[in-house]
Design a protein that fits this description.
The protein is an alpha+beta fold. The protein is about 50% helix and about 15% strand. A hairpin with a 4-residue loop joins strand 5 and strand 6.
Amino acid sequence: MESTVLSQVGWYRDEGALSRGEIGIRHSYMASLATVLDYFSDDFDPVRLMGASAFAFRIWINQIFCPSAMSVFDWGTLCPEAVEQYGRHCQHWASYSHDGDADSDDRRNAHQAIIHSLNVGTPVVCWDVHDTEWGVLVGYSDSDQSFYALDHNGEQRELPFERLGRNGVNLLSVIIPGEPNERSPNDATRRALRAAVAHADQKEHLDRPEYQDGLPAYDLWATMCERWALIMDAGRSERISNDIPVFAGYYADHYWSARSYAREYLTRLAVDNPSLIGPAQQYSRVTELLAGVSQFFSSRQVPSHSDDLRGVVDALHSVALAEKRAINSLRSYLGSSAR
């Protein structure tokens, strides 16, 4: 019987973001990846990770505020690309099982890779450690038949071996960052900005129209809040599930977090590329507006007045306009720099 625990792995906290009064990396995949990459070195850069991966520029909205929106993207492409964009090779196992067969080749191969990775001192990013979110595997015990993990809140969890890839949702996603790759910083930057524009234009895979991404996602988000206000106007507030304001806050926190990194990333790039000053300023405005939306939903309670929700609607329309201007500027920048 074997076991190991990487006891020095701690859930990543972006002290720079916290010092600015912001919330740091909120998306559970990116926060898990940050935790692993930070463990590798003393110079981990969260702005570079969020910006180069283009997760700083992404948004997914579901038409009923379902939190599943955060995990509906193309895992097989975007999960490993986030690691490669940070300058490291990546191993990724991903599959879906209709019957939850824990003995499938994918799960068996992923299990073996996890054990090897932990034995050589590398923590592992894993889907559905707890509450259908990504987390980090930091150890295992053959005698307990379990992995030891940190969930998306940094809390210690145990994931039974048999639950790998079937811990409530039969989806497997295991990501192990490896050695440095040969991708240059300039190449990574251009890839990131192209990805930002492609996402805004809805060029990435998504199950539409139930979900929306890119610039149209803001219209759906605003429409949902307007419908919510109309229900309140009709005196039917009791028909609004208590989950709705919770999920609305979940959305707002995620996208405030993401756009704060877009602002920081572009501000950094603008030092050597003055053409990016405008987009950086637009994302600063986007971040400011989304901070207000996040604050509005911070109580996770049903709002008292429909007019307050309409203030959120106005803010989201302003966010969409500012982001559209930023994306158009990035589009022009990419076109001019390619010539």
